[in-house]
Amino acid sequence: MTKRVLVIEDEPNIVEAISFILSRDGWAVATHSDGETAVQAVLDAVPDALILDVMLPGRSGYDILHDLRAHDLTRRLPVLMLTARGQRTDREQAERLGVNRFMTKPFSNAEVVDTLNELVPG
Amino acid sequence: MTQSRLTGSRIRERRLFLGHKQSALAKAVGISAAYLNLIEHNRRRAGSGLLDDLARELKTDPRSLSEGAEVALLGALREAGQRLPEVTPELHRSEDFAGRFPGWSALVAAQHQRIRDLEHLVEALSDRLTHDPELAASLHEVISAVTAIRSTVGILSGGGEVDAEWQSRFMRNMRDEGRRLSSAAQGLVEYLDAGADQDMAPVVPGEELAAYLDRRDHHLSELEGLNAADAQEIAATIAALISQVGSLQTAAAKDVARRQFQQYVEDAVAMPLPAFQAARKDVTGDPSRLAAHFAQPLPSVMRRLAFVPPDAEAPPVGLVSCDGSGTLILRKALPGFAVPRFGAACPYWPLYQALSRPGHPLRAVVEMPGPTPRRFLCQAVCLPREALRFDVPPVFEAMMLIEPVDDAQAHGADGPVLPVGSSCRVCPRSDCAARREASLLSANPA
């Protein structure tokens, strides 16, 4: 069965690159770019995994993650968070909110694919 | 003569540049067009005599055909190939790759160079992230573009099928991101050069002067050693200095500078440089002892400590001052202790505690946030700026001296280490009772 991932990221060329590498690896990829409507987008079609940017228009990735962890449908949804800032405090904040993996930009393609496959085996 | 695998490509490139037909060139050097075709596609080597003949017909030096610029290109490709540990391109076939796909290989090399340059730029600027939200936003733009380019280059150079339509799309993306990077990098350079560029000079009077003082590291040797009794000489020296400072363009900026330079001269006269540096070595760590030694008020000593040149025994110190409204007047930052260029600073700075306790010197060790939090000894005092009068309220000015400290020194200080920041907009501390506004660096500030 095809694994589904939702990419919430507002940089179109990053979205395109991530979508390509994940599609090539067999994932069904959906994308969303707006922070304000992101939680609803996840709830409308809960994926097997979520890639979540931190700095999004309208709402930060941290706030989105906070809301997702409060919802029964997404409490255990595997989330890989991407950020341009890799400070210890950023990582700690993401971990407090229940992120599964935290990755600093610029990332490598293989790292993204391997991490998702680790989060959603098989 | 040693030939590389790209000799044929350069022969072909030179021939096409001159507009010669392959058959005509082949005939001129006495070989068949088919054989020249093989040479031009790097499938046959040209002997040294033939290479000389080809060079003669192509009006160039044989060495430029045999060596060219591919050494640098191959070096760049090798570096690009080693950049991503998880991708293992066939490094031993770099020359093949460069020969068969010169455009692609040049693109990979150029992108590698661009990414490397931008990584260096980002690293060099990382310390300044806490200075200015605008700069933080610009750097985010750079990092986003670098991320898109790195990921796209990884797809194009990492093996695996990429059909023509996707290749075209990724090429377009890289072109767009390259332009975006150029624009973002140019904006950053202009920002950083603003103090040296008249067109970009700050428009606020204090900013014009601050930019100049930062370039001089706040030490003005022209104003040292003047004769206190010769007011005319002092005025002339200050006027000459102001006229030399290109960034002081407005009358308001010159007026601000004149007052600060006058203050500098008064401090220098009261505490001449050689005597001050000698006394500083004997009386370390406590500006009040220097104040007693020279019979000068603490703020004068603090300015002198911050404005004399540092040496091995007296490392650089920072200084900030503010008036009763909290507006920063003097700003001399230190690495790791960012002083906001615009807007208000952190209300937990001892500078502001001193403002609420005029006449009581305060001392505290503070910790600035960051990947490696750094600690500083801050000594602050607030005193009336002018002589006290009965007819007008006093105007107070607080001043704070900032010195880097190590952990051992921090443990010896009065009270606990105080967590502070630069300004709310760029402070990641989310559990801060003094927060005025949301941080760009933290998601759910109070």
Q: Which key phrases capture this entry?
A:
A: 122 residues, alpha/beta, Rossmann fold, five-stranded parallel sheet, 5 helices, 41% helix, globular, B: 446 residues, alpha+beta, 434 Repressor (Amino-terminal Domain), 18 helices, 9% strand
Walkthrough of the structure:
Chain A is an alpha/beta fold and 122 residues long. Chain A has a single domain, classed as Rossmann fold (3-Layer(aba) Sandwich). Chain A contains 5 helices and 5 strands. A 5-stranded parallel sheet of chain A has the order 2-1-3-4-5, sandwiched between helices. In chain A, strand 1 (4-8), helix 1 and strand 2 (28-32) form a beta-alpha-beta unit. The longest helix of chain A is centred in the first third of the chain and has 13 residues, at 12-24. Chain A is globular and about 30 Å long. Helices cover 51% and strands 9% of the residues of chain B. A 6-stranded mixed sheet of chain B has the order 2-1-5-4-3-6. In chain B, strand 3 and strand 4 form a beta hairpin. In chain B, helix 2 packs across helix 3 (33-40) and helix 15 packs across helix 16 (298-307). The longest helix of chain B is centred in the middle third of the chain and has 30 residues, at 164-193. The model of chain B is unreliable at 195-203 and 442-446 (pLDDT under 50).
